[in-house]
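Table 4 source record.
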Amino acid sequence: MLRYVDRWRSYVEARESQGVRCGRKPEVLLKWEPPRAGLFKVNVDASTRGDGKKGVGVVVVVRDSKEDVKVMACRSFKANWEVETVEAYAVLCGL
């Protein structure tokens, strides 16, 4: 899994070195909607320390159509990744 995260990080760094902004969007307030009956929805979030020190965290929450939490997991570890890289890792963890 970390191989894919490293590939994503390399891609983002290459694109940003060309002046392309990758994944940085203005904040938008969205309302969570449950999935259709019989399906699950996976939500992920990621964070970095932001103070130059190593440390990232990911959270995964899986809910059903009744909004019941079926799976919830979190992990933090030492790494010095860009937030987009941590978000990509969170998506992989959610899968």
